[in-house]
Amino acid sequence: MAKTLNVPLVAMDYRGPTRAVRTPRRIGGHGWTAAVAVAFTLAQLVLVRPGMGLGWDEAVYVSQVSGHAPAAFFSAPRSRGISLLAAPIASWSSSTSLLRIYLALLSGLGLFLALRVWRGLFPVRVVALAGALFATLWVTVFYGPEVMPNYWVAIGALAGVGCFLRAQVDRRDRAALWGVGASAALMAWMRPTDAVWVILPLLVLVVCARRWRRPRLLAALVVGLGTGAVAWVVEAYASFGGLGARLADASRIQGGLGWNIAVLDQLRSLRGQTLCRPCTGSVPAPELIAWWFAMPLLAALALVVAVRARRTASTLLPLVCAATASAPYLFMIGYAAPRFLLPFYALLAIPVADALVHLVTAPRPSWRPVALTLVALGLAGHVAVQYAVLEDAVGRSTGARQDWARTAAELHRLGVRPPCVVTGQEALPIAFYAGCSSAQTQGHNASTTTADLLRTAGRTPTAALATAKDGPPGYARDWPSHRFGDLRIHVGPATGAAGSQG
User: Fold this and answer.
1) DSSP state, 311?
2) Which phi and psi (to 5°) does residue 295 adopt?
3) Burial letters for 401-434: b for 16+ Cβ neighbours within 10 Å, e otherwise?
4) Which whole-number Å values give the CA distances from 329 to 152, 189, 444, in the listed order?
5) Burial (CB count within 10 angstroms: exposed 0-12, middle 13-18, buried 19+), residue 313
6) b/e map of 108-134 (b: 16 or more CB within 10 Å)?
7) Taking each helix axis from N to C terminus, what angle separates 150-169 and 81-90, rounded to the nearest 10 degrees?
8) 243 near 237, Cβ under 8 Å?
9) Does residue 69 come out as left (phi exceeding 0), alpha (psi in the -120 to 50 range) or beta?
10) Who contacts 386 (Cβ-Cβ below 8 Å, separation ≥6)?
C-alpha cells in the first residue's frame, strides 16, 4: 500500500489566500511532471536535431563567450544572460551539437522545477497536463535547445507566479520566498523589460492590496529584479549613454514601441515563421491556428470554475500575469516572432489544463467517456499539428543555416580567413560561421564607419556581401567580385586570394 504524507493544499478565494487545508497526498507524485520533462527533452533532441546550426541571434549571443569568432555587435535590446547560460559549453567548444544537448537537458530540468512549484496549488494531473500542453507547442520545442532568452523568461514566469502564490499561503515557506526572488532574477537576467511586464501585477498586488501586503515578498521581487538587471543597467551607462538612451535605442531597433495592434502578425507567424518582419501574407489554415482561439475560451472556463470553487486567486493571477507579459508583443510592436509569447503560453497552460480536466471530470458519469474521448482526440490533433509545423520550421531554419555555412566555406576558399572582417548582406551570422568579425556601416548593427572599414580592408582580409541583383557598396566598387548562389562576394585589397571578376 502506498504511503501518504500530510502536506498543505492551497485553498484561495477572491479576497486572497486563506488558511491552508491539509489533505493527504501520495509520495511519488512528482513522477508525472518528471515524465513530462523527460519527454520534452527527448522531443528536442529528436525533432530539432542537435546538429542544426546556430541562427542569427544565436550567433550574436554565442560569439560573446566563444573563442570561435570575435564578439558580434551587441545591440541595445539584448541582454547577456543567455550568453552566460551557454558559456559552460560555448566557452571551450565550438560544437553546436554539444551545446544543443546541454541546453535541451537544462530546459527539461527547468520545466520540471517550474512545474514542481505548482504542486499543491493544483492537483498533480492538472500540473502535469499543463506541462504537457506547454512542452508540445512547436515554439517551445524549437526554442528549448536554442541559445535564445525567451524560453527562460517563460520558465521564470511560471516558477515565479507559483512561488508567489505559495509564499502568500504559507508565510513560513522560505523556499517559496527565495523562489520568487530567483525567478525574478532569472527573467531579468534574460530580458529585463520582459521581466518587468511579467511581475507588474505581483508588485501592484503586494503594494495596493491590503490582504496581500508582505514586505518580505515585495523585497524578494524588487531585489530579484534588480539583481538580474544590474548588469544590463551598468552596460547601459557604460556603452549606450544611460538607461534612458538604451531604452530609446531598443525601442527604435524594434520599430518604435507604441500603440500598434500586432495580433494579426502573431497569428500569421503561427505557420512556423521564427521572425515575421515585415509580417505580410495570408492567415494560416484554420487547423494551424484553432488552438490559439481555444486558449482564451478554456482560460475563461477555468476562471469560472475557480470562482465557483472559491479558489479564484490561483487561477486569476497567472491569467493576469500572462496578459501583461503578452501586452507589449500584441499591442505595442510592429512585427511578430512566436518566441515572444512563450511566457504567455507558459502561464496560460495552468488554467487551460484545469479547464480541460474539469471538462473530463465534471459531467455525469455516463457522459464522462464521451467527454474524455473528445478532449483526447482534440489534444491528439493539436499535437499532430504542432509537430507538423515544427518539422517545417526546423527544415527551413536548417536550410538557411547551411547556406551560411557554405558561404563561410567559400569565403575561406577566397582567402577571407581569420583574422578577417565581413560586412554587408547577412554579414553577422556568416562572419560567425567563418570565424570573422562582422561590421556594418549602417542599420541596427552599425558598428563602424566607411573610413574605418576601408582602413581595415587595407590590412585585413575583408569581404563585402551583397545580393546578386544589387550592386556593391560604393566603397567596394573596385574590389574583385565573385558570384556565389544568390550573393556576390566583393573581396577587399588585403585578401591575397582574391580572384578575377566573377
Assistant:
1) -
2) -55, -55
3) bebbeebbebbbebbbeeebbbbbbbbbbbbbbb
4) 17, 19, 20
5) buried
6) bebbbebbbbbbbbbbbbbbbbbbbbb
7) 110
8) yes
9) beta
10) 136, 137, 138, 141, 291
> Cell for 310?
472559491
Bridge-based pairing of strands 481-484 and 21-26 is unpaired
Query: How far apart, in whole angstroms, are the C-alpha atoms of residue 190 and residue 78?
Result: 8
Degrees (nearest 5) of the Cα angle 372, 378, 380? 100
The CA distance from 92 to 123, in Å, is 43
Can you tell me the distance from the alpha carbon of 311 to that of 304, in angstroms, rounded to the nearest whole number?
Answer: 10
Whole-number Å distance between alpha carbons of 472 and 396:
28
Q: Tell me which DSSP letter residue 48 carries.
A: I
Indicate the SS3 state at residue 148.
Answer: coil
- The total of other beta-carbon atoms located within 10 Å of residue 480's CB is 18
Task: Give the H or E element holding residue 424.
Answer: strand 421-424
Q: Are strands 21-26 and 462-467 parallel, antiparallel or unpaired?
A: unpaired
Cβ–Cβ under 8 Å, residues 155 and 198: no
- Grid coordinates of 456: 581595415
At residue 29, the pLDDT reads 62
CA distance 392 to 445: 29
> Are the beta carbons of 80 and 231 closer than 8 angstroms?
yes
The cell numbers describing 234, all together, are 551598468
Q: Cα–Cα distance between 183 and 481 in angstroms, integer? A: 52
21 sits in which H/E element: strand 21-26
The domain spans of the chain are: 4-362, 401-491
Q: Which amino acid is at 58?
A: E
The C-alpha R_g of the chain, in whole angstroms, comes to 25
Q: What is the C-alpha to C-alpha distance for residues 1 and 117, in angstroms, rounded to an integer?
A: 27
Q: Which residues contact 100 (CB under 8 A, 6 or more apart)?
A: 44, 45, 48, 49, 50, 51, 52, 145
Identify the CA nearest to 331 among candidates 259, 388, 277: 259
Q: How much is the pLDDT for 375? A: 94
Q: How far lies 171's CA from each of 101, 146, 216, 317, 382, in Å?
A: 39, 37, 10, 18, 40
Residues written for the chain: 502
Residue 23: its pLDDT value, please? Answer: 38
Cell representation of residue 369: 467517456
Provide block-wise average pLDDT over 10 residues at a time, the chain (502 residues). 38 40 47 96 96 96 95 95 98 96 98 96 96 98 98 98 94 93 98 97 94 92 97 96 94 85 92 87 90 95 93 94 97 93 98 96 84 94 96 96 97 96 96 96 90 94 91 89 93 68 41
Q: CB of 277 within 8 A of CB of 335?
A: yes
pLDDT score recorded for residue 433: 97
